[in-house]
């Protein structure tokens, strides 16, 4: 189906199901219950899951397949955001031209940076990409203020020229982003008993973009081009002596992943039309590395899982504070309650980084293949249990690159 | 007709003259061996044929065209394939994938951005790779990780990958180094079979006399970076200069 093998088509259908039903799946707890704060089914967070999922899928095409570890991919995301905001300012509030420009500009920018950085490999390549990204960040922050609006960040104003559209609405406010009249911010809330499920236009636009991005990634993984990228990671020497020119292969992978980052940046600006230099900072570049490794570098679904995992932690764990804990542990005697809370305190709220860091270390040490490997091991346990019952023979070797 | 013409090649590494005045001609469809003691410059010479090194002086012509200044992938596309001293294969990939890659390189050239097509449904390439695996007697290992194979199998796979490109000249750098006697004999048989079944020129660097004398039609003896003599195996065996320089104490 869609030119995919059965296993890949199944994976795609599962991802389609999960993204389209996300407003239900991520909202399992009734609105008024104590667990409601673990709900992630609100538009803002769902958009972030999907946008960072796209970012990580693209990053994985470079890192997971070729093994070239870029520490500067946030620069392409940032460039994408700036491009989109400029499109909103100058042309129209329609998200399509804005996103298209984001992808194109990020592609050109990554062609330039990739062309220079790919002259080196290994740690030197990583350092070059990091240097370029920090340069971009600093330029955006200071020298290029006329384009980026410096530390304030690029925003819409009431005087934007907007060729195909209006500078301000009848009531004197800034118009909102939309898709041929459909506003990105509009949300339909469905009340079912104690639950409130939110369906947001912006989220569904991002979801469609994710599905296209994911589908293309599967095609790339299974294509001759994808095979060559894995060959680059495995043995460049053999490639060269097999008549293959590695440079254009790595450059193409770099540009494709840069365009994915640009798409993510463009979507981010389409959801909330502003762009700041901090989006290009090295911490942002490091985050996508973490997402990819945590989920499982070189696997199809891993980067999406990693992105969701980290964004969930960032947004949900960070909101648990001592008051919430007191609520949970109030059944304990006072002394014990305070003791338990003192122990947990460093790991929640502002301390969510600590928890995430510990989890990341555990994954890297015990599950080098990331969350995907964890999933595979659990699945294998179940299978073995079944097989033992049937008395069937031992299973075959695993296939690479799920 | 000679397919590889080496004229007056010299190469210096700092204070060391690794090669000097190397003249050599490899006849088309022959098996030509280059022998010599350790450090004689055999690998250095071979590296000058494949674009890894550029000689300081002289010329290297393949089929009438100079190879000097060309990159390794360009020289391979001209029709020269190389087998390394320690097998160079794609260890992270399966045996079949290892074989698919040179087949794509042969058909599609040095770079082809085919990111939407499917490897699995490319029948032409798939059949070619499977046929080659069968010829190498390793079709049953197709789904195995290449890194997990024995040294002998890796060597066999590497030779098969080179052959799948139908090169006109196959270069081998000590293909049996570090192998047990049984594996060495298997490799000799494989090379003999390859030679019998197709029009191919083989240039082999070797340390092991047994291998050289069972395969080569002509032998060049290299000592201290210069060819000493070039002749048939029978004449080389009895040559006094060779015994002195190479066979040394056995004389
Ligand atoms: N890249 C290099 N830099 C410096 N010296 C080298 C280099 N490669 C080879 N040599 C030297 O050149 C000589 C010939 O080496 P090599 O061609 O590997 O010999 P062989 O393959 O015949 O054993 C040796 O003395 C070796 O140390
Ligand atoms: Mg050598």
Q: Largest sheet of chain A at a glance?
A: 2 strands, antiparallel
Distance N to C terminus of chain A: 17 Å
Largest sheet of chain B: 6 strands, mixed
Residue ranges of chain A: pLDDT <50 for 5 or more in a row?
390-402
Roughly how many Å apart are the termini of chain B?
A: 35 Å
SSE order of chain B: EEEHEEHEHHHEHEHEEHH
Task: Please tally the β strands of chain A and state the result.
Answer: 6
Shape of chain B: globular
Instruction: Please tell me how large the radius of gyration of chain A is.
Output: 23 Å
What can you see in these coordinates?
The complex is a heterodimer of chains A (402) and B (251). With 402 residues, chain A is mainly alpha-helical. Chain A has a domain of 225 residues. Chain A is built from 17 helices and six strands. Chain A has a two-stranded antiparallel ribbon with strand order 1-6. The relative contact order of chain A is 0.16. The C terminus of chain A is likely disordered. By secondary structure, chain B is of the alpha/beta class. Chain B is built from nine helices and ten strands. In chain B, the strands form two sheets. Chain B has a six-stranded mixed sheet with strand order 6-7-8-3-9-10, with helices on both faces. Chain B has a four-stranded antiparallel sheet with strand order 2-1-4-5, with helices on one face. In chain B, strand 1 and strand 2 form a beta hairpin. The longest helix of chain B has 17 residues. The model of chain B has no long low-confidence stretch (mean pLDDT 92). Classes of the chains: A mainly alpha (402), B alpha/beta (251). At the A-B interface, helix 8, helix 9, helix 10 and helix 11 of A face helix 2 and helix 3 of B. Adenosine-5'-diphosphate (ADP) binds next to strand 2 and helix 1 of chain B.
């Amino acid at each position: 189906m869609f030119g995919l093998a059965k296993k890949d088509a199944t994976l795609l259908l599962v991802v389609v199901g999960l993204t389209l039903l996300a407003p239900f799946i991520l909202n399992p707890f009734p609105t008024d219950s104590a667990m409601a704060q673990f709900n992630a089914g609100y538009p803002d967070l769902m958009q972030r899951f999907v946008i960072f999922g796209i970012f990580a899928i693209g990053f994985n095409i470079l890192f997971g397949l070729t093994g070239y570890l870029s520490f500067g991919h946030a620069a392409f995301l940032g460039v994408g955001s700036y491009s989109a905001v400029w499109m909103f300012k100058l042309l129209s509030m329609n998200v399509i031209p804005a996103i298209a420009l984001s992808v194109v500009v990020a592609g050109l920018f990554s062609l330039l940076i990739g062309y220079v950085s790919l002259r080196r490999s290994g740690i030197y390549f990583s350092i070059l990409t990091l240097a370029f990204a920090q340069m971009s960040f600093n330029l955006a922050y200071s020298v290029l203020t006329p384009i980026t609006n410096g530390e304030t960040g690029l925003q819409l104003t009431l005087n934007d020229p907007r060729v195909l559209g209006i500078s301000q609405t009848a009531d004197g406010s800034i118009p909102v982003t939309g898709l041929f009249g459909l506003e990105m911010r509009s949300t339909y809330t469905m009340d079912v008993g104690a639950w409130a499920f939110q369906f947001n236009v912006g989220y569904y636009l991002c979801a469609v973009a994710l599905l296209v991005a994911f589908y293309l990634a599967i095609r790339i993984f299974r294509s001759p081009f994808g095979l060559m990228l894995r060959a680059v990671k495995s043995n460049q020497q053999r490639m060269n002596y097999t008549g293959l020119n590695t440079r254009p292969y790595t450059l193409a992978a770099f540009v494709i992943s840069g365009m994915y980052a640009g798409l993510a940046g463009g979507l981010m600006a389409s959801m909330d039309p502003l762009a700041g230099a901090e989006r290009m900072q090295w911490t942002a570049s490091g985050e996508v590395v973490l997402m990819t490794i945590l989920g499982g570098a070189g696997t199809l679904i891993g980067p999406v899982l990693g992105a969701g995992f980290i964004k969930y932690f960032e947004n949900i764990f960070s909101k648990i504070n001592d008051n919430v804990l007191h609520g949970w542990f109030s059944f304990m005697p006072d002394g014990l309650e305070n003791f338990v809370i003192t122990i947990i305190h460093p790991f929640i709220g502002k301390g969510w980084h600590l928890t995430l860091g510990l989890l990341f270390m555990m994954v890297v040490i015990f599950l080098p293949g990331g969350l995907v490997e964890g999933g595979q091991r659990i699945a294998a346990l179940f299978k073995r249990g079944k097989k033992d019952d049937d008395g069937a023979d031992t299973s075959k070797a695993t296939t690479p690159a799920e | 007709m000679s397919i590889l013409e080496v004229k007056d090649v010299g190469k210096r590494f700092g204070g060391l003259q690794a090669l000097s005045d190397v003249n050599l001609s490899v006849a088309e469809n022959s098996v030509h061996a280059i022998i010599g003691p350790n450090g004689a410059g055999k690998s250095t010479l071979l590296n000058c044929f494949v674009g890894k090194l550029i000689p300081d002086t002289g010329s290297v012509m393949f089929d009438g065209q100079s190879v000097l200044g060309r990159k390794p992938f360009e020289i391979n596309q001209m029709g020269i394939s190389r087998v390394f001293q320690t097998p160079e294969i794609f260890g992270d990939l399966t045996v079949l994938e290892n074989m698919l890659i040179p087949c794509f390189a042969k058909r599609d050239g040095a770079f082809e951005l085919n990111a939407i097509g499917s490897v699995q449904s490319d029948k032409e390439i798939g059949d070619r790779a499977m046929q080659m695996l069968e010829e190498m007697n390793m079709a049953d290992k197709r789904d195995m990780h290449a890194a997990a194979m024995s040294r002998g199998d890796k060597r066999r796979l590497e030779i098969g990958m080179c052959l799948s490109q139908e090169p006109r000249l196959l270069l081998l750098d000590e293909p049996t180094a570090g192998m047990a006697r049984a594996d060495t004999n298997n490799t000799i048989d494989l090379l003999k079979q390859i030679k019998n079944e197709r029009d191919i020129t083989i240039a082999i660097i070797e340390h092991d006399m047994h291998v050289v004398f069972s395969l080569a039609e002509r032998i060049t003896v290299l000592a201290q970076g210069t060819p000493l003599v070039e002749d048939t195996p029978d004449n080389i065996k009895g040559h006094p200069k060779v015994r002195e320089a190479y066979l040394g104490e056995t004389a």
